[in-house]
Amino acid sequence: MKKAFLLIILFLNIQLLTAQYTEIINSKRPGFSESPYSIGTNVYQFETGLFYRSSNNTTSSGIPKSFGGDLFFRYGKFSEKLELNANIAYQKDQFLALDNNSVLQKTNVSGISHLTIGAKYLLYQQKYTDKTKEIRSWKRKLAFDKKRLIPSVGVYAGVNTNFLSSNYKEDGISYKAALLLQNDFSDRLVILTNLIADKITSDFNYYSYIISMTYAISEKWSYFMENQGVFNKRNSPKYNFGIGAAYLYSNDIQLDASLRTNFFDNYSFIYASAGIAWRLDKHKEKLMSKAKYNPLKTKNKKRKKRRRGNIFTRIFKKN
Fold it and tell me: pTM for this structure?
């Protein structure tokens, strides 16, 4: 029972260290950060939810209220290290816009606001010492593995398409790239660090970082804390902080909720979301069957070949 409990904890919102595929769903939600690991080959995963944003920003470019939903689709194919994905969002915003008399008026717009298609690949997978096999020294068994300070590394590349509603269209497509890092400091504690360049080649390009901490408190519950910073040339840096929790309903379903707010701005906002992650698991391990591989049969064939070679050698020597 104890081994099963620790195994489930390891799988909550993090990836297995020895393979991409996990028996239990691992989801990007409810945070914004992303792990360098993929979901495994022949796995279809849907992560969707509703969000609500409320702000006291009174400028003409502000969005006091926003409500919508998003869908993050993930698919593993070709390699355990590779994942293909797509992110789409639909929302309804309430703008403050100037009318003909230069008076601020509330204006509502809605539509598809975001559609990005991309892929990520695991470049380096950190492996840790198995302390359960240490029987000579109790001190070494409990000592911190310094390898955990070196993260697993992945990269992401995507395209921000312009297949959006008219109210959200920009001038052409743009690109997104990210460096994805993951440190497993223990079987329960994971730190994710994302360094992102978004809307590359457009007039709205920006850079950001995301640092997330995920901690499993039981075999069903985990929580996270997250800090995000956004930087561009047009505005001062923006920072926000989020917290949330996830509940493992079954091996293939996870429920979540989160809440975040901003820092260091002359206005404040509240962002709340709730959602679900579900996967269709068609993953199959690549195992060699006994019918295809028989060590004894293979060994006997090699012996026969060697014998035949010796016979032919003798004949040619006689001639």
Answer: 0.79
